[in-house]
Amino acid sequence: MRELTIKIPVNLLEIDFVKKFVERVKLELAVNELDLDENELMCFAEEIKKSWWERNGKKFLEGIINENSC
Fold first, then answer.
1. What is the DSSP string of 7-44?
2. Confidence tier at 61 by pLDDT (50, 70, 90)
């Protein structure tokens, strides 16, 4: 397996950003291994978005409404 090492001074990035970045890379690698065609991948993405909105939509929209209230 090929590896890439990146060194970044700790004070330049928040740990949450790094965790999200690593998770994104893991997801990209997993998707590449699935060998899905573009249509299957788009359907899968739509299912993920729908599931996210069902679980988080109300909370997310409440945050937006509360931020924009006068």
1. ---GGGS-HHHHHHHHHHHHHHHHHHHH---HHHHHHH
2. confident
Query: Cβ distance 44 to 36 under 8 Å?
Result: yes
Q: Roughly how many angstroms between the first and final C-alpha of the chain, as a whole number?
A: 55
Please say if the pLDDT value at position 38 is more than 80: yes
Phi-psi region of 5 (alpha: psi -120 to 50; beta: other; left: phi over 0): beta
CA dist., res. 30 & res. 24, Å (int): 10
What is the distance between the alpha carbons of residues 49 and 42, in angstroms, rounded to a whole number? Answer: 11
Angle subtended at Cα 59 by Cα 68 and Cα 17, rounded to the nearest 5 degrees = 90
